[in-house]
Specification:
Elements lengths: L1 H23 L10 H17 L5 E2 L5 E6 L2 E4 L5 E10 L4 E11 L9 H6 L4 E2 L2 E6 L19 E10 L1
Length: about 160
């Protein structure tokens, strides 16, 4: 009988330890997206902003943007050395990346930005800022990247601080 009690105590301790270990394990959230979900999210965003009387512009290739502040001087062109402030968000507003001072050469060979960023920033001048809705086809497409799931339209606020 003593052996049986000891056995149950050991089993109880092991079971308790397993509950603690597996219960505290960080659960990975898997986000599944599709082109249909992306299209619906983009339509909802566009509809909400039109309803709020936002002036939404679009490029000839389907990039949407809202100019928040008009800058001065010439617009950004290939080869410009830029300093920008930006925030990258998912469609639900969750921030996935941000910088208050990011420098790079626009369309430079050492640093490639997503197509939507490179296209969109060209509507801005020094001091200008805009909110961009970048479809996944102009971002990370159907593969995603790191924490960006496939078929993720992205929102970026970008302000051009300096152009050289």
């Amino acid at each position: 009988m003593k052996k049986l009690n000891t056995y149950f105590k050991v089993c109880a301790v092991v079971l308790f330890a397993m509950v603690i270990v597996f219960g505290c394990k960080k659960k990975e959230v898997i986000i599944t997206n599709s082109s249909e979900i992306e299209a619906t999210q983009m339509k909802d965003w566009l509809d909400a902003n039109v309803k709020s009387n936002k002036n939404i512009d679009t490029t000839t290739t389907g990039l949407y943007y809202i100019v928040e502040k008009v800058g001065s001087g010439p617009k950004v062109i290939t080869g410009d050395s830029l300093t920008v402030k930006y925030t990258g968000m998912f469609m639900d507003g969750t921030v996935f990346d941000a910088s208050s001072s990011f420098s790079y050469v626009h369309k430079g060979t050492n640093q490639r930005m997503i197509q939507g960023w490179e296209e969109g920033i060209e509507v801005l001048s020094k001091g200008g800022s805009a909110l961009f809705l970048i479809p996944s086809a102009k971002a990370y497409g159907d593969n995603g990247y790191a924490i960006i799931p496939p078929f993720s339209a992205l929102l970026f606020t970008i302000e051009v601080i300096d152009i050289k």
